[in-house]
Amino acid sequence: MNELVTSRARAAVRARATRRGLRVLAVEALGPLTVLGGIVWAFAQPYRVTFFYPEGKGFWDWAVQPPLLVVLVGLLFALVVAPGIVEDLESGERGDAPSG
Amino acid sequence: MLPRAETAHWLFAAGFLFFGLVVLAEAIVGPAVFRARRWRAYLWPSLALAAGVWLWVIAIFSTFSTLHLLAHSVWAQAATAAGAVQLAVVRGRLVSSYWSLVTAGALFVSGASFLVHEQNGWLFARSAFLHHLIGWTLVVSALFPLGAALLPRRAVWAYGLAITWIAVAVMLFADRDIAPIFGHLSDLAGGGSR
Known about the structure:
Distance between the termini of chain A: 38 Å
Distance between the termini of chain B: 21 Å
Number of strands of chain B: 0
Number of helices of chain A: 3
Helix content of chain A: over 70%
CATH topology of chain B: Serine Threonine Protein Phosphatase 5, Tetratricopeptide repeat
Strand content of chain A: under 5%
Oligomer: heterodimer
Radius of gyration of chain B: 17 Å
């Protein structure tokens, strides 16, 4: 393999690593960004959070508080879905991806 | 003890947001990595199927008008069909990319159902505005699975579908039973209950 080919092969490996890094970052950011969105929404429209205005509220008002639902969804994704995807993305690159 | 319509919409919004994040993650890493674990492969078809079942439950209780009953039934049927077909696709029973046309049809029919069953104009109330907006969003978003059927190797279709569900979630979270839209609220909004 001559010098030119080796250099291009290294560049390709570097580019692949960069793309993988960006994908890992993107998947890891989805959950926290969603959580952040819910928190910002709760402060922007506090009247949509029953904890801040509890007077005269019924069961469903306590059970379903939209900004908190957004936070919950973000947490669920960040804690349950994202870690496995990141792990598989990295292990796939190493060639030891899980089969099931 | 039944929840208000807006409460049910917010619950569905949360489901669609999660659904959108899952589809977006699949778009980012690609199907090969995403489906490396079997439970993840089945995740979004199962969510679609579960949404369909829940929409049937909603349809049972939304008997206050024939149009609402029919609309909820159409959404339930569309989600059930799309979820079932996608389950068969990830299971390997269906292999043709043209099965994406079922998802495209489900989105188009769901969007049309939103538009047909909203009889008020865009600025009648916030819920009317959102019905129109969600309806057109779903109709246009049918292009993404259509594209996936015709040109399956392009990632843009998966990104488009994911963004669609996140946008629909935002719209559903914005829904209120009676609320103005851009300062407009018809005196007839809420059926005279205000």
